[in-house]
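Figure 3 (text version): structure tokens given as input.
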């Protein structure tokens, strides 16, 4: 290095600064003033408050100085200091010892403030061969404008003394001379150098260290460099064996921009001791975060994030040294690669990512090699992202020599599902070396994984995660004469027109294994029609133990395909012109139009083979295991073998689709042009039809037999099974199926619903409403018999609880007094009213719940009404006899729209009541004629509206006895009753109001009898209603038990002779509670009005009825 006068330039030569010893006083250098100098021991002490350095040269002495000398030059060791509170200004301070072996130990507790522009800088410590040690207090400062604000330099190539700078006070360089270092430490020889401290350093370049021995740059202060051509830390190391360590933990901030050098940390070393960059602070606003160059070994472990424009970490290895980069922090690069290495000889390169987000415009990580260097990438966490719209890739390994390339991703993600790599996810290329790639998750907009191996280099790819391309292949691999082995334990997902996985080799073997639980598929619609695997060149072995969607194309060598997982394919599967063995021990689903073949194909299936439509095998087929096809009336799925086919005792499994099958129809499921041998062991048929297997010389087929409809029911009810069994019986008896064939195509809920609609359950509602109508009529007759007595007790006596003093005239005229005197005075008058006529009405509504789980009956809602007229005769004071006629109707409906019915009703009955004291006995006989009609709709083979009209007769009788017990508040009459009914319908048939009438039923005649018992009490109380009337309140509470509650009909389909079955309707409850309440208003003119409301309640039914009557007696 040359130093000239103040108007001359400063010119460094080479990467390292070179200085000559200062044996004489510089002619135009700064001077120190007011610093005391002694010769023995040599010392420089600046103790005045203000030291001004002048630009005069008056002292050439070795160990002396005047105030305006330019420098201190002396022999021997020098101890120097700037005392606390002292500021050295002007041209700064330079201390130089020219004697070999002499050193400098300098302490700065004050400040150096260089105010005059000089070349060398603010504080310079120079020796020939001796050591230099600099210490500064935390409050000390150096402000300079020259080459370096603080300089430590040994000038001789024979130097042996170490250079040590403990910089704890801030250093600033605001000049524009040369590199403008804040701190510059340099040696011409291989001495050890240490720079550390807590100082904040600012300059065009922060720290420059140049030497050949062990070199350490530490410290924790922040560095700010201001020049686009500057560096945060610049280390130049020669060819010696010294070690370079950079472990500066403070931040490094550059000027920004993408031009110039602009490097956060730069290390150049051609030595052999190794370069270690570790534990660094945040690097930001730089063009290059870290730049390494040389032939040494480089080990880089960032301790914080890096943000740059062109490169995050860049290493240029020009020799046999190794490169090892381990990053667990964010690296963000806006226009280049985040991590890039270059090796041009034999040094191996290893990049390891353990965490952080590594994001770049082009490759997130790029390794390039020549010679025999091996390229190795490891990833256990973090994310790689690349946004460049070209094939640079998120991860790029390119070895153009003879070395190998290895990717070992065990965690983290290359690209993200939401933000995939714009280019290739993983790109690996070698010219002659081997490729070994292991991946976890890779997301790319281009090819997910792309490998190219030249020469005889082999390719091994193993995937444990998800590799997904949003626009292209998931994986593509090319090899020369080396082997290719691909194993997928995760998911390979492609989205382009090319194969999900492609492997090409000129002559090497190819092995592809989709392991158990793994997936190969396109993410586009109908992935089974897409291209899944393509190989060419060498012999291919394809093994699928997982799930595979798509077609396979193989080269012209001898190939083997083994499927013991699930393979779904539609379209052409071409296996080249060589011989191919296809073995299926898993599940192979082949869509319509699928072909297998090429050269010589041997296809063996012992798993499940499911062709859809027509599938072609161009070769021979050996078929065992399960062969599954779908059957339709127009044909069946089948396989056409252009060769021989051998059946080895497997199972033919057939699934019925739709109906319309014809008994005796043959459906071909396998055709072999070269001949068929062997048989299936059995036929497993799902559906309502029955069938058996048949064979001829070239075909295997399924022959349709008559099916059992009842066997197709799953958890069918009794009604459904009865209907199905009736249809089965008729068809098995030789009846033609006709429109009933459509039922056999149904299954599950559809079949169950169809059988419900066919059952004709609506007919069972006729008995329910007929019984309910007769109950209303007989009840009205019985109540009228009681009302004929007008509330009078037996033998004409009045009610025992009547109050004499409160009986109005009307009451007295109606009932005899309890007074014996009055009884003798007024004769009994009951027989004076022998005749009575009356009219009334009744009505009811209710619901009877069906039993839908076992029996299969449905809810019925009966409704009845009637108008009654009658007359009675008082045969004696204790006996009333009468009769009545009624006309009315009924209607009902079934739930689920299964039909409805109605009837017109005519009723006639006789009744009588006899009293003995407080006891009574009453009875009634009745007959009803019912003109009934039903209607239901069947939606099978069109819409059929089916109606029926028929007559029904009901016979009923009732006997009741009770005993009336008067109390002070109300009269209580415990009673018991027995009532019997029989409802009879003749045989009748339905007719079609619209539709074909194919499902019309013919019903058998049926009589349904039931015996009803009642145990309960009646309650009544009579009060005066003015002077001309009495008002009687009546109520009833009873337990009702019916012996026969079943409602069933027997029927058969008119179009199917022999199809007789029984259908059950909703059953009436056996036990229920009867509650009634009513009132009767009796006028003195013998006119009586009555009304009653009755409810019957049970767990499965509920109903309410009402009666009203008008009576006149004379």
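Below: residues designed for each position.
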């Amino acid at each position: 290095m040359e130093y000239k006068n103040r108007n001359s330039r400063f010119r460094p030569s080479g990467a390292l600064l070179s200085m000559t010893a200062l044996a004489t006083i510089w002619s135009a250098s700064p001077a120190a003033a007011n610093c005391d100098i002694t010769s023995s021991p040599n010392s420089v002490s600046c103790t005045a408050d203000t030291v001004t350095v002048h630009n005069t040269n008056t002292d050439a002495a070795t160990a002396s100085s005047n105030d305006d000398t330019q420098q201190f030059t002396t022999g021997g060791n020098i101890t120097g200091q700037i005392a606390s509170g002292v500021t050295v200004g002007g041209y700064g301070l330079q201390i130089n010892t020219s004697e070999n072996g002499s050193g400098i130990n300098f302490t700065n507790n004050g400040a150096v403030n260089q105010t005059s522009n000089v070349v060398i800088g603010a504080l310079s410590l120079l020796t020939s061969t001796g050591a230099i040690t600099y210490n500064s207090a935390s409050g000390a400062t150096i402000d300079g404008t020259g080459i370096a604000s603080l300089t430590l330099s040994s000038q001789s190539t024979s130097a042996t003394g170490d250079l040590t700078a403990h910089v704890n006070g801030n250093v600033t360089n605001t000049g524009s001379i040369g590199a403008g270092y804040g701190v510059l430490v340099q040696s011409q020889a291989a001495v050890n150098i240490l720079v550390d401290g807590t100082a904040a350093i600012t300059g065009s370049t922060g720290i420059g260290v140049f030497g050949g021995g062990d070199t350490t740059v530490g410290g924790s202060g922040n560095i700010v460099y201001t020049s686009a051509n500057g560096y945060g830390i610049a280390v130049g190391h020669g060819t010696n064996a010294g070690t370079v360590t950079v472990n500066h933990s403070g931040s490094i901030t550059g000027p920004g921009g993408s031009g110039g050098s602009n490097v956060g940390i730069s290390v150049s070393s051609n030595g052999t001791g190794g370069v270690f960059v570790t534990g660094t602070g945040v690097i930001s606003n730089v063009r290059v975060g870290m730049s390494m160059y040389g032939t040494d070994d480089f080990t880089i472990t960032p301790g914080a994030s890096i943000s740059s424009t062109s490169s995050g970490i860049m290493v240029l290895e020009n020799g046999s040294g190794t490169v090892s980069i381990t990053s667990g922090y964010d690296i963000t690069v806006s226009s280049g690669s985040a991590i890039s290495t270059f090796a041009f000889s034999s040094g191996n390169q290893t990049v390891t990512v353990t965490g952080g987000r590594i994001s770049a415009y082009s490759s997130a990580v790029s390794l390039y090699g020549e010679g025999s260097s091996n390229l190795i990438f490891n990833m256990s966490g973090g994310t790689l992202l690349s946004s460049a719209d070209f094939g640079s890739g998120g991860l790029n390994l390119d070895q153009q020599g003879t070395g190998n390339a290895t990717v070992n991703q065990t965690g983290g993600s290359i690209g993200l599902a939401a933000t995939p790599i714009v280019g290739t996810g993983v790109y690996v290329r070698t010219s002659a070396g081997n490729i070994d790639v292991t991946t976890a998750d890779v997301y790319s907009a281009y090819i997910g994984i792309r490998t190219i191996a030249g020469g005889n280099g082999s390719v091994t790819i193993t995937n444990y995660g998800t590799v997904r391309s949003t626009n292209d292949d998931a994986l593509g691999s090319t090899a020369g004469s080396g082997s290719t082995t691909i194993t997928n334990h995760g998911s390979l997902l492609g989205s382009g027109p090319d194969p999900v996985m492609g492997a090409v080799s000129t002559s090497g073997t190819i092995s592809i294994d989709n392991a158990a639980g793994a997936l190969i598929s396109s993410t586009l619609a109908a992935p089974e029609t897409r291209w899944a695997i393509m190989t060419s060149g060498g012999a291919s072995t394809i093994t699928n133990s997982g799930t595979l969607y798509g077609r396979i194309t193989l080269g012209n060598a001898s190939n083997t395909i083994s499927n013991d997982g699930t393979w779904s394919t539609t379209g052409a599967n071409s296996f080249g012109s060589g011989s191919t063995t296809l073995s299926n021990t898993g599940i192979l689903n082949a869509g319509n139009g699928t072909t297998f073949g090429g050269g010589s194909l041997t296809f063996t299936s012992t798993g499940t083979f499911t062709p859809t439509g027509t599938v072609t095998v161009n070769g021979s087929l050996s078929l065992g295991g399960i062969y599954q096809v779908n059957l339709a009336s127009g044909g069946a799925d089948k396989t056409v073998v252009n060769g021989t086919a051998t059946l080895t005792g497997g199972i033919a499994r057939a699934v019925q689709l739709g109906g319309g099958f014809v008994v005796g129809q043959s459906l071909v499921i396998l055709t072999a042009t070269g001949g068929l041998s062997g048989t299936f062991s059995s036929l497993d048929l799902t559906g309502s039809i029955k069938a058996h297997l048949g064979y001829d010389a070239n075909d295997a087929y399924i022959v349709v037999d008559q099916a059992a409809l009842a066997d197709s029911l799953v958890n069918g009810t009794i009604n459904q099974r009865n209907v199905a069994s009736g249809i089965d019986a008729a068809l098995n008896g030789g009846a033609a199926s006709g429109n009933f064939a459509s039922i056999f195509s149904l299954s599950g809920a559809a079949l169950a619903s169809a059988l419900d609609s066919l059952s004709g359950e609506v007919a069972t509602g006729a008995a329910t409403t007929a019984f309910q109508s007769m109950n209303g009529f007989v009840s009205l007759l019985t109540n009228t018999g009681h009302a004929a007595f007008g509330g009078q007790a037996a033998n004409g006596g009045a009610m025992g609880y009547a109050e004499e003093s409160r009986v109005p005239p009307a009451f007295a005229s109606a009932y005899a007094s309890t007074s014996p005197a009055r009884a003798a005075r007024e004769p009994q008058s009951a027989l004076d009213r022998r005749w009575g006529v009356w009219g009334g009405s009744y009505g009811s509504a209710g619901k009877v719940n069906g039993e839908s789980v076992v029996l299969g009956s449905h809810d019925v809602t009966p409704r009845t009404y009637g108008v009654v007229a009658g007359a009675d005769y008082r045969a004696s004071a204790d006996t009333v006899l009468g009769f009545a006629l009624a006309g009315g109707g009924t209607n009902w409906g079934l739930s689920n729209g299964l039909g409805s019915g109605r009837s017109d009703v005519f009723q006639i009955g006789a009744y009588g009541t006899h009293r003995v004291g407080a006891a009574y006995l009453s009875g009634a006989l009745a007959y009803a004629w019912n003109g009934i009609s039903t209607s239901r709709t069947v939606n099978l083979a069109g819409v059929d509206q089916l109606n029926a009209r028929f007559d029904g007769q009901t016979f009923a009788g009732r006997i009741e006895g009770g005993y009336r017990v008067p109390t002070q508040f109300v009269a209580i009459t415990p009673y018991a009753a027995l009532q019997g009914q029989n409802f009879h319908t003749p045989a009748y048939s339905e007719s079609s109001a619209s539709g074909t009438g194919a499902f019309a039923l013919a019903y058998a005649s049926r009589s349904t009898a039931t015996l009803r018992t009642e145990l309960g009490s009646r309650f009544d109380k009579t009060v005066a209603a003015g002077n001309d009337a009495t008002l009687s309140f009546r109520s009833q509470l009873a337990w009702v038990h019916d012996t026969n509650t079943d409602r069933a009909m027997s029927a058969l389909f008119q179009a199917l002779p022999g199809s007789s079955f029984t259908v059950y309707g909703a059953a009436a409850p056996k036990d229920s509670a009867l509650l009634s309440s009513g009132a009767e208003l009796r006028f003195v003119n013998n006119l009586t009005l009555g009304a009653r409301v009755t409810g019957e309640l049970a767990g499965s039914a509920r109903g309410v009825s009402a009666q009203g009557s008008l009576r006149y007696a004379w």
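Confidence is low (pLDDT under 50) at residues 1-34, 52-70, 791-807, 810-829.
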